[in-house]
Backbone:
């Protein structure tokens, strides 16, 4: 078991967060390299946090601010005198340049998306990064460094960003305008690898085993001898939380499974069989189908759906908690993508994308305290943790399923009839994926029912039925995603099977939108 001062004893990369939606992705990339990383907000960073905590390198994140918003930006210039290697990414590149005497201004041409970076000078930071002196990188900025700080040289440039990559190698200070942490930047991991090992000289010290021990320690410290209710759905996240809590608090764990009526086909039976019979976990089953459907009647706004489902979830848990003595905590499988899409680090409303049922949908006056051990993890990290916790692969490798369930895969009004239609369509789609060995190649796949009817013809009869949308995406972390490129024969087979077996659907379409610009779920 790791000691509580784990963070203090490990050599680490400290990431100063300026509100980028990719900040946690930077931390994850560093941990993938086998080195411990920690994020701290620019509003909370203290010089002592760096001096007294074995910080081997600093990374300044991107963010929605600009360097002229001085009242919103916290940067202690004394950090620059600590002789610790620093890498500024995007906004971090700009704030580093500005504080070292360079200049930043509005770009004449903004850069969003892929840009071609050309090598200008050799650098330890770019070892094995360029291919024939160029590389495609992911840009997301409207400001640019217009004048280099003293002592800096240019490593790489793009058409619209002359100082896209700079360094002062003597002082081990580096600035890059693009995002190496996202998969869109080819060889981006090489930049971070070179920074961590070749420049910061750190050694590997982190694994999923360390992560498991650290999370168990954190739960014990928070919960102590109190009882915890776990919001169990049977999905990957809540299953990992349940197993983690069982190891942390033992018999003080009570799992509650609420059947909202918005689950996948036969899901309630699978959850009961798996957790109550196989894992022998104390499981309370609540059939609340009618209650949820009545509350969602005539509601079409996606945010209202999430709020209603989130609030009702908590009310049910609170009601059950009253019957169990000493219940103080509610455990949820909130992940980092849920958190950052729901809340703005900087306080800017423009940084918020949508609320999630277990984040933005919670009542302001909740009687139970939250336990969210996975809230700083991505889905792939949760799967690795599940393997470490010895959960079966049939659970760990299951595709993500949203907390609000089919409610957000059914734009418009929700009815019992539409739910049954969608459950059958989704079941056929997923079974075909498994049958053709495609399920584990795809990050997430689902069927959705669009609130539009179209005319069709079956035999000699006219039909007027719903459109079924199929979505399948590939991703590493859920932050960015691309659609899976099925062959024509598979799509035709699934389309025919859905239309021929389900009354209520006469047209099937396939979603070929990436994230960004869209989100993975429809609502």
Residues:
């Amino acid at each position: 078991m790791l000691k509580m001062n784990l963070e203090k004893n490990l050599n680490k990369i400290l990431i100063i967060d300026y509100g980028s939606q990719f900040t946690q992705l930077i931390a994850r990339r560093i941990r993938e390299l086998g080195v411990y990383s920690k994020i701290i907000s620019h509003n909370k960073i203290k010089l002592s946090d760096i001096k007294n905590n074995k910080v081997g390198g600093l990374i300044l994140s991107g963010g929605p601010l600009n360097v002229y918003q001085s009242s919103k930006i916290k940067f202690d210039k004394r950090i620059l005198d600590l002789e610790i290697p620093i890498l500024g990414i995007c906004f971090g590149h700009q704030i580093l340049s500005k504080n070292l005497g360079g200049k930043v201004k509005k770009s004449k041409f903004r850069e969003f998306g892929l840009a071609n970076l050309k090598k200008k000078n050799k650098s330890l930071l770019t070892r094995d990064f360029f291919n024939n002196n160029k590389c495609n990188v992911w840009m997301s900025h409207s400001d640019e460094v217009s004048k280099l700080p003293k002592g800096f040289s240019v490593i790489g440039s793009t058409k619209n960003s002359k100082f896209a990559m700079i360094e002062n190698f003597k002082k081990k200070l580096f600035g890059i305008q693009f995002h190496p942490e996202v998969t869109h930047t080819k060889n981006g991991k090489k930049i971070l690898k070179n920074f961590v090992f070749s420049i910061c000289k750190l050694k590997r010290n982190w694994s999923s085993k360390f992560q498991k021990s650290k999370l168990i320690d954190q739960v014990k410290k928070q919960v102590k001898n109190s009882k915890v209710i776990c919001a169990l759905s049977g999905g990957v996240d809540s299953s990992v939380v349940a197993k983690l809590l069982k190891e942390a608090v033992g018999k003080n764990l009570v799992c509650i499974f609420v059947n909202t009526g918005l689950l996948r086909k036969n899901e309630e039976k699978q959850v009961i069989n798996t957790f109550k019979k196989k894992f022998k976990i104390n499981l309370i089953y609540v059939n609340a189908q009618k209650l949820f459907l009545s509350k969602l009647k005539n509601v079409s706004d996606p945010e209202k759906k999430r709020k209603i489902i989130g609030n009702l979830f908590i009310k049910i848990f609170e009601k059950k908690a009253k019957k169990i003595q000493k219940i103080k905590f509610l455990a949820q499988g909130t992940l980092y993508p849920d958190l950052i899409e729901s809340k703005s680090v900087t306080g800017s409303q423009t940084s918020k994308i949508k609320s999630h049922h277990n984040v933005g949908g919670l009542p302001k006056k909740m009687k139970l305290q939250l336990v969210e051990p996975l809230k700083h993890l991505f889905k792939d990290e949760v799967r690795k943790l599940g393997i470490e916790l010895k959960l079966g692969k049939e659970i760990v490798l299951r595709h993500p399923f949203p907390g609000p369930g089919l409610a957000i895969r059914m734009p418009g009004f929700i009815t019992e009839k539409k739910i049954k239609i969608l459950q059958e369509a989704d079941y056929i789609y997923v079974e075909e994926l498994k049958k053709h060995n495609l399920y584990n190649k795809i990050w997430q796949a689902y069927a959705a029912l669009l609130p539009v009817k179209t005319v069709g013809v079956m035999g000699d009869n006219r039909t007027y039925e719903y459109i079924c949308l199929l979505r399948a995406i590939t991703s590493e972390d859920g932050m960015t995603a691309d659609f899976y490129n099925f062959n024509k024969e598979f799509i035709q087979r699934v389309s025919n099977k859905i239309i021929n077996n389900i009354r209520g659907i006469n047209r099937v379409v396939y979603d070929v939108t990436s994230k960004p610009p869209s989100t993975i779920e429809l609502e």
